[in-house]
Target: small monomeric GTPase
Amino acid sequence: AALTVRFLTRRFIGEYGDMEFIYSHNLTVDGREILFHIWDVPNSQEQAEEGSSEEKRIQWADCFVLVYSICDRASFNILPLKIQFIKAAKEGQSQEKVPIVIVGNKRDLHHQRVVSSEEGRLLALSLDCGFYEVSAAE
Model:
């Protein structure tokens, strides 16, 4: 949620509840107006729901940004399963590759890091995804 709010408003808010939101945002990219619809779902909520709700979100989306905390190994470890689920649901219907980006957040908290940048890059490479490390706070 912090990363979504930072993208939409350029402000950082550190504390969020476990709420799901859909945001709309216009942005000009390379001279073209792009309308983003962002369905922001906290990881803890996804784990608590049955697969049909998650599958509905996957069918709704055209691309995926999966965010983990570099300070939370569990948030990183769940990514391969999520990515396999997304690819099975999206690529099973067509031969097109689904765009997926893995983002390691909280780069500013390097002193609390438990997931290395190299681990993130290797996971993304092995799953044919993009990879970035960022700090929503900075």
